[in-house]
From TrEMBL:
Protein name per its UniProtKB record: ATP-binding cassette domain-containing protein
Family: Belongs to the ABC transporter superfamily. Nitrate/nitrite/cyanate uptake transporter (NitT) (TC 3.A.1.16) family.
Membrane association type: Peripheral membrane protein
Compartment(s) of residence: Cell inner membrane
Pfam families according to UniProt: ABC_tran
GO MF term list: ATP binding; ATP hydrolysis activity
CDD domains for the chain: ABC_NrtD_SsuB_transporters
Alphabetized UniProt keyword annotations: ATP-binding, Nucleotide-binding, Transport
A single Gene Ontology CC term: plasma membrane
Amino acid sequence: MFLTINNLHKHFNTKSGNLVVLKDINMGIQRGEFICAVGASGSGKSTLLRQIAGLDQPTSGEVKIDNQTVNGPGPDRGMVFQHYTLFPWMSVQENAEFGLKLQGLSKKERREKASTYLDVVGLSRFAKSLPNELSGGMKQRVAIARALASEPKVLLMDEPFGALDVHTKESMHQFMLELWERTGLTVFMITHDVEEAVFLSNRIYALGARPGTVRREMRIELPERSQQIKRNSTFHDYRDELMELMRGHGQEAMIAA
């Protein structure tokens, strides 16, 4: 496995006592897979992503990427958040170069790499624009280009399309599939949107809540990946199974609380 999560637990000490957010999480991801972790509020999705990103450390267990234990942030992981996190005073080009500048690359190297990935996401002609001149979908493409410019081993996505309107979200879904197929990226994305997860991923990890645990691993096999597939009975079966699973465990969490 390329990315492995082994017996991961995460607890927080609160005024009310020990809060268990993640319990006994085990996942294995092959190089080049597009994986989604789906869960309702309280399932620890964002906490899980922080462990993989190295922004926080597990209470016990470990995360490994390419056989290396994750002990902190690193350029082998690119992050894309729900909110675009672009610097409003910087041009698109400068935003795309930002991570490379932190890595100490020369101005020439930064410009060449960032330009390459702005071309990949279809925004070369907007390189001199400021973020406030872009649509929501275009801003997210800049954020993706910035993450890709560091050529990470894994692209981590934290509900990246949650702030977009329905039409823009659908366009971004198609864009992500094309980008993934074109680059062979390994993608790990968290979302609460079941349809989004079914449409995009090879496999889905369904998380239960309070504490977050892996309730089910589901392999997604669809005959095609276009908007029309959402009318297909196979797509509906996957969606309904996940929705039922999330509803059931949501009710369990409410009773436990």
